[in-house]
Design goal:
The protein is of the alpha/beta class and 191 residues long. The protein has one domain: NADH:ubiquinone oxidoreductase Nqo5 subunit (Beta Polymerase, domain 2), CATH 3.30.460. The chain has a 5-stranded mixed sheet. Strands 6-7 form a two-stranded parallel ribbon. The relative contact order is 0.11.
């Protein structure tokens, strides 16, 4: 089986050779600025990852992401995605996962923060409006609530749905049949 830590040549070169020094410098600056709030950093070549993964305490995750966006040494001004993973039976149960891209340096970074069952995660909507629907999807699929989110409601499942289908404890055949269509909330319709 191939190991992601073994460099693979591409038309653009191998990622670690191309971006390794940038990533190391950035990791050192993050450790310096955020200190004990950085729980761990996994680097390509050392860990089975294709980009740096920065684990940060939940209390400072939005501050760190905003710093990555606004500081010119990082310039991660493109919000690619956010999602979550259910790490059950491990605790904390969930990991929030944020993907950012720097259009000036052509580098990527993954930010993770750990969330316990029943805890809320701060919303990223104040930094990137595009996080709105992604956070709604995480709420819908995993049941993670976002403190300060402007419109946290289901986005994929029917509003009557019970449970969150991407949790590991959700039954594989947890079908729910609704014989009638969901009522439309008139306040959500635009003119």
């Amino acid at each position: 089986m191939d190991d992601i830590r073994i460099p693979v040549d591409t038309a653009y070169g191998d990622w670690n050779t191309r971006f390794g020094e940038i990533w190391k410098t950035q990791a050192a600056k993050l450790r310096e600025k955020f200190g004990d709030s950085i729980e761990e950093i996994k680097m390509p070549g050392e860990s089975a990852t294709d980009m740096p993964i920065v684990y940060v305490k939940k209390a400072r995750v939005i501050e760190l992401i905003k710093f990555l966006k606004e500081d010119s040494a990082f310039d991660y001004a493109f919000f690619s995605d956010l999602t979550a993973t259910d790490e059950q039976p491990d605790e904390p149960r969930f990991e929030m996962v944020y993907h950012l891209y720097s259009m000036t340096q052509h580098t990527r970074i993954r930010i993770k923060t750990r969330i316990r069952e029943g805890e809320e995660c701060p919303t990223l909507v104040g930094v990137w409006e595009a996080a709105n629907w992604a956070e709604r999807e995480v709420w819908d699929m995993f049941g993670i609530k976002f403190t300060g989110h402007p419109d946290l409601r289901r986005i994929l499942m029917d509003e009557r749905w019970v449970g969150h289908p991407l949790r590991k404890d959700y039954p594989i055949r947890g079908y729910q049949i609704f014989p009638t269509p969901q009522e439309i909330d008139p306040s959500l319709l635009s003119d």
